[in-house]
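Issue: copy button drops trailing tokens. Both records pasted manually instead:
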Amino acid sequence: MAANHFTSTSQEQSAVRLEALFSPAPITLQNLVVVGMSRYLYEFMGHVLAPGKLQGLATSPSWRDDIPYLHRFLRSPAAQNLRSLTVSPYVECLYHPPPGVPEALFVRKIFGAAIAQCTRVQYLRLGLVECPSAECFLAPLSTVCPLLANLPASLRAFSLHIWITITLQESEGWARAVRSWNTLMNSLAAVDRALDPAGEEGKRRFQHLRRIELHVHFWSVGESARNGDAAEKHERQGDIERVAAAAMPLPRLKAAGLLREFLVDNVVHARAEECGEIMADVYWPSDSET
């Protein structure tokens, strides 16, 4: 059984029930997109996909408990030749570790370990959400840095997407977003040093790296954000442009010619769940760009 692309938003079907519907013949997929409750689909796909045929995976694990299943899938024969990996931003799991477990340790040991074992991945796209007003979400500063230690040495292109939430319902919503931007600049300084081809770590670990992309999305969620008047939206866009123009992130990578894209935009969604659907495609930069 062959196919080029598979997308699923299954919320309830278990791996056992799904597997019973298929013949023993393995399924050949080149690209796989998994959105929504993913733990059962990771297990199912690990059982039925032909070994070594999957080239690209895009996924959005919604909960912390999904991550061990993703980890096992990436270790399975089905994913052994994976070349492109996208993990989209709808991930409570990165920001709400188990009680008593430091966030950085959880990210490095659990999520980072899943990425680190993909030793043939050449194209990695990673999305992280910064939600400044919610207690269960923490800044990307402590999330990005431990992930750097787990990036595979095979990388040719790395695309980092950061969502900074604007909470319009709060009087300090925009001020919080600006503070989040400033925090992000500190975090990106670590990225700049780690991937710099002139630095010891970058020269040693990332000899194949040819392309870096940074996309920062100021993210307004809710009906009030979508239905705001044109003047308010224009003012917010002007605020975002002024903040973005004040600082140029990743100066080392830009000087080395590796920073190919730096984009800052304003994203509006009526539902928070839509965030997990933003990167629901497999990341394949053109060969001429890498």
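Record 2 (pasted manually too):
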Amino acid sequence: LKRQARLRREFIYRRSIEARDAESQRKRDLLRSALKEGKRLPKEIQEEALKLNEELDWSDDGGEGVATAEDNEYLWAGSEDPRVVVTTSRSPSSRLKEFAKELRFLIPNATKINRGNYQNKDLLEACLAKQITDLVIVNETRGVPDTLTISHLPFGPTAVFTLYNVRARHEMEKLGRGSGAKMPQAYPQHAFHGMNTKLGLRVQSILKHLFPVPKDDSRRVVTWYEEDDVISFRHHTYKYVDKVLQVTEHGPAFDMRCKSTFIHGLCCTKFGGVHCTKKRRLMSNGSIDRTCPHPINAVFCPNKIPLC
């Protein structure tokens, strides 16, 4: 516990240093722009303009893509497969249990555990003791799965999604289990559409790092199609028969909307850093390329727009 508290303090300190440096860089950019255009200095930098001007003499372009604390959250992504735990809320219904079970088979290297009466804090402590990298919790309302929480351990980020139109494999008559197709076990490729803003890329990073790195020739694809801040999830495999593309949907299928993202872990939200996504057009800026050469382009979402 002492080690976890120390690591948490170090992580929060690094974020505070980054915030301070980002503010200093913003002021230097304001000064550089004012000097270049010959405009009056903004009031917020007039008192420290001389100090900022001295810093400009030693600064130059470059430094883009430098690792930050957000990058360090997934520092070992790709070198080690994620270890994911899937669980439910307390006293789950049979449908929620079945949905959690399907998420366990959807995510490679995932393990489903029974929640029992454990609180979130106890659950996180158990996951940290077993070096779990991500915790996925599904909740319900009157037997209908309606909330998906993804928390990266140990320090976050955490994303909370509201679920809509949930269709499990056993509920599909002609697709999924109803078609007789078995659940594929290969590591899936990811097809992302939309989510091109800073917040959208943040959500994209949270989702894709639940899965291990796939092989280049993997024929299993999970699609995250975002439009108007609603992400439609679909799960397919594809193959070529006589040079004709054949696509099979396996399920589960659902739509979700990002309710909020926390910089820190599930039980560390008191430290701040909450990004709410209640307004529209936060996940994408509307400039979306709807064409893609990927073969899964033959799959269509409910609004008949080709997936990417």
